Amino acid sequence: MNNANLDAVCDFVCGMPARTLSAEVIDAAKQCWVDWFAVAIAALPDPAPSIVRDQILGWGSRGRALSLYGDRTAAAPAALVNGTLAHCLDYDDVHLGTACHASAPTLAAVLAAGTDRGSSELDLLKAFVAGFEVGTTMGGNGIGVTLADRGWHPTGILGHFSAVSAVAALLNLTRGQIAHALGLAATQTGGLQASGGSMAKPFHVGKAAMNGVMAAGLAQRGLEAETQLLDHQDAGILGCLFQKATLARFDTLGRSWQILRNSFKPYAACQLTHAVFEAGRKLARDFQPKDLHAIRAHVNPLAPKVASRLRPATPMEGKFSIPYCIALGLNGHAAGPADFSSARLADSAVMDLTGLVEVIPDEKVERWSSRVELAYRDGSTRAAEIDAALGSLTRPLAWPDLEAKFMAAVEPILRADAARLLAALRSFEAAGRAAEVAALIERNRAVFNARRTNA
Fold first, then answer.
1. Domain boundaries, the chain
2. What is the Cα–Cα distance from 223 to 285, expressed in whole angstroms?
């Protein structure tokens, strides 16, 4: 059998420790880190990661791996907690070409494995980039989007490969060990798109990070796996998931950098709701709810499959609700974390509009675009079109936006330490920054423990 995919991934991951990354790639990686820490720290009070944390603390595992709650445990449990935190608010970055939240499981795995073994700053950054590139390259050529269309959570699948590749690079695994690590990761993949709007979706990401850490560590110790799962068209990972012969392509690894095509979210909801939210905001200036008969949302066909909660009952469901996000926009809200809350769900001005929304799939509409029409009983209409929502590749967030997002998310929790953490992450390639970040997290452990203690 042709082992082209396996060879390409093994060569890339094995060669990453010796590779010199461009300043542009390093800068893109640090943007991912700043965004990741922002959304993960903001999720610390949430029930889902708190439940996961309580579970792993009950295991009593030993190690030096750091979770964002300030706990020190074995690497795999810490990765589970960090990955769940990173995706809990659905506010984390997304690689639009693959519909994969690549940073969430990858950095969760890198932070856990790296702090457990005391890795250097540059080694941590390189490992993260290695994993990001493998996961997003695997999802290229429409594979990530097709996973979502078939009902699989792309990050739950592709995140296994980004996490294991990152940790394999960090551990300096041999080519043979990397091959077995990939096989061990492949056989653990999972995650259903229908879990969107529940606590299980961020748990997918935590499991991808945890499974990647375990796969790399077990392969290092000699546990073997089937190594043909990237190259077997029928019985390989994608052939089984799609139930037809399918292969990814990895021939662009190290030549075309996917991290330079990453996207950061300005709104704390599924990316497929962003354009309809902005259309609602655009229409909010002269919005009159009186005599409104219908709201028609023209969206990409993937949007109603993923953001399918028509009348959300929980804040998490609101993040995956096209009608709710339109209603937020029409009422002039910001679609920040506070807008996905029980208080906002109790607002009749928002919820009464959700029942008027008709979602219309349209193949001509891109995943970052929309058209929203308001139809009144007198026959008049108003409409707004969004060609590219903020955060998409033609309207990207820049460093000032990411810094503002970070401070808004982190300062309420870390207070004065928020600015110190941001400065350390912005210059993370410098010696001593990893220890500085860890110290800032650990010294705020009492704050992170407040919810658990009160419970």
1. 4-265+415-451, 271-386
2. 61
Q: What span, in angstroms and rounded, lies between the C-alpha atoms of 19 and 254? A: 10
pLDDT tens string for the chain (455 positions)?
689 999 999 999 999 999 999 999 999 999 999 999 999 999 999 999 999 999 999 999 999 999 999 999 999 999 999 999 999 999 999 999 999 999 999 999 999 999 999 999 999 999 999 999 999 999 999 999 999 999 999 999 999 999 999 999 999 999 999 999 999 999 999 999 999 999 999 999 999 999 999 999 999 999 999 999 999 999 999 999 999 999 999 999 999 999 999 999 999 999 999 999 999 999 999 899 999 999 999 999 999 999 999 999 999 999 999 999 999 999 999 999 999 999 999 999 999 999 999 999 999 999 999 999 999 999 999 999 999 999 999 999 999 999 999 999 999 999 999 999 999 999 999 999 999 999 999 998 877 776 455 54
Please tell me the CATH code under which domain 4-265+415-451 is placed. Answer: 1.10.4100.10
Q: By three-state DSSP, how is residue 417 classified? A: helix
For 70, 112, 284, the CA distances from 377, given in Å and listed in that order, are 57, 57, 18
Q: Which CATH code, of 3.30.1330.120, 3.40.640.10, 3.20.20.20, 3.30.470.20, is assigned to 271-386?
A: 3.30.1330.120
Classify residue 400 by burial, with Cβ atoms within 10 Å: 0-12, 13-18, 19+: exposed
Q: What does the alpha-carbon distance between residue 57 and residue 71 come to, in Å, rounded to a whole number?
A: 9
